[in-house]
Amino acid sequence: MVSGRHAPSRWICGLLPALAVMLAVTQSAAAASLSAKDLQVLGRALAFLQPPPGAGSIAVVFAHDDAASRRDAEAIVALLGDGLRSGGSLLRPMLRDSQSLAAGDFSVLVVAQGANGEAILAASRATHALCVTGDLAAVQAGLCTMAIWSEPRVEVVISHAAAVAAGIEFVAAFRLMVREI
Predict the structure, then answer these.
(1) Which structural domain range is residue 161 located in?
(2) Under DSSP, is residue 160 helix (H, G, I), strand (E, B) or coil?
(3) Measured between alpha carbons, how far is residue 109 from residues 5, 10, 58, 73 in Å?
C-alpha cells in the first residue's frame, strides 16, 4: 500500500509527461517566424493583389536538410490550420521542401526561417507566386516579395524589384499603406 506521503510524488511523475507535451506544442507554435497575426495580415494583403488569388494552395517552404527551418515551416502550417481566407477564397497550406518547388501548384510561397534563397526566387518568378517571409533582409536583397511583422505594430515591406520579376501587381491603394523598397 502507498503511504500518504508518497502519493503526491507519483501524481507529479504522472503529470510530467503531459506537461512536457503541452510545452512542446506551445513552443512549436511560438517558434514560427510568422505569427498568427502576421498570417492574418497576409490574408488581408492578398485581397490587394491584381488579380487576387483564387482557391488554391500556399506552399510553406523550408530549407532542404535544415531541421530548424522544417520545424518553423511546420509551426506556420499549424498556425494556418485548414487554410487562409482571402476574399471568398480559401488557400490551403502545404509543407514543401525548397528543392521540390518545380511542380508549382501554389499561388503563395510562405518562406520559413533559413529558407530564403535562389530556389525560392526562381519558383516565385516561374509561377508568378507571391513570396512572403518574416525576414526583412531577404526582401531587401530581392529574394522575396513581401516581409510582414505585426509586433510592436503592423508593418509590411514590399520589394518592388522582386514583385516586378515575379509579375506580381498590387492595387495602388495598397502600395500607399506599405513601405516599398
Answers:
(1) 32-180
(2) helix
(3) 56, 48, 6, 11
